[in-house]
Every structure is written in C-alpha cells, then in structure tokens.
Amino acid sequence: MARWIDDIVTAMQNLGGRATYADLYDEVARVRGTPLPKTWQAIVRNQVESYSSDSENYRNHREDLFYSVGGLGSGTWALNKTVSYPAVASTTTSESASASGEPSAGYEGAVKRVSFDKYERDPKLRRQCLDYYGVDCAVCGLNFEAAYGEIGRGFIHVHHLVPLASGSGQRLVDPVRDLRPSGLPELPRDAP
Questions:
Q1: Where in the chain are the domains?
Q2: With a threshold of 0.70, does the pTM exceed it?
Q3: How far apart are CA 128 and CA 174, in angstroms?
Q4: What pLDDT does 146 receive?
C-alpha cells in the first residue's frame, strides 16, 4: 500500500493542485480505495501540515510540499509549485476514457496564473495562545489527543477572532485577547 503522503499528493494533483480539507478527504478516500482507519482524517491533516512550512507542525526534515491558501485556518491547501515531488499519474480514468471505454487524447499544459495574498503569522503568538488556553477547542471543547490518541497530540488550529484578511495590513495581535484554539477550519465570529 502506498504511503499516506503519496496518496495525499496524488489526490491533490487529481483536484488540480488545490483543495479544501473536505474535498481532499473525499479524493484521498477514493485514491486509497481500501477501508480507512477511524482516525484517517486526522492522519491526512497531520501529513499535510507536517509537510508545510506554513504550519507549526512542519517537520524540517521533510520537503515543503504544501502551502496554506488564504492563511492557516482557511482549510484550503495547495501543492507548492517549486517542490520536486515525483509526479504521480492521476488515478482518474473517467476523464481520459472515451464513450467506448478506450483512452483518448486530451490537451494539457495551458498556463494558469494564480495570485493570492498570504498573511504572515508569528509562531510565538500561537504558542502563547496555546500556553494560556491549552489545546482544547474554544468552540466545542474537542481535544484531538483524547479523541484520536497519540496522532492527535498537540494538534489544534489557532484562529484570530477578527480574521487577518478582514484588516488593512499588519496589526498588533494580543495572543490572549485576539486568538483562540479551535478544531474548526474557521472560527465563528461569536466564539468565546
């Protein structure tokens, strides 16, 4: 069986190189095609974040395969264009097969320009927020380690109560007043 990261990269490639966690989960499940363990979605999140320098969970010995589209907490990730990860052939056959079931030619290689804003974060503010609030979700109380075991240890997002994207540039952030730990992809504005 392929490694999780191989299947995640394949799934991301099948989705055009960019996906929300929800879409990525669906495609990873399709790519793996086998019964998945109970904690498989946490495994996918952990793998994506441990292969992304945008994440606190990045492991420096790993290649920087992904970046967070719209900043951490947006729930959308994309493949870095600069990485040299081996190309994995798409497992999607429905698009490459004709009505008769025979493979048919298709066009590839069109240039698509992608532009986005990336909001810089200070890892020490994240750490100070977690030191103050702990790693339980501020919205629902979920503790990933309690729910998923060892693989969930220390896993939690940290969200800005007022999203950085809603501001007009750099601003002073208080880790206790302005940030909260959350297991949700986006923190509701009326969160505690």
A1: 1-96+106-118, 123-182
A2: no
A3: 9
A4: 92
Q: Is the CA virtual torsion 48, 54, 185, 84 positive or negative?
A: negative
CA dist 173 to 11, 90, 95, 125, 176, Å? 36, 43, 47, 8, 9
Give the whole-angstrom CA distance, residue 54 versus residue 71. Answer: 8
pLDDT (0 to 100) of residue 186: 56
Say if residue 29 is exposed, middle or buried (CB neighbours under 10 Å; 0-12, 13-18, 19+): middle
Where does 33-109 have alpha helices with state H?
Answer: 40-50
Q: How many CB atoms lie within 10 A of CB 192?
A: 8
Cα separation of 148 and 44, whole Å? Answer: 13
CA-angle at 153, arms to 149 and 159, nearest 5°: 125
pLDDT digits over 161-176, tens only?
988 888 777 889 999 9
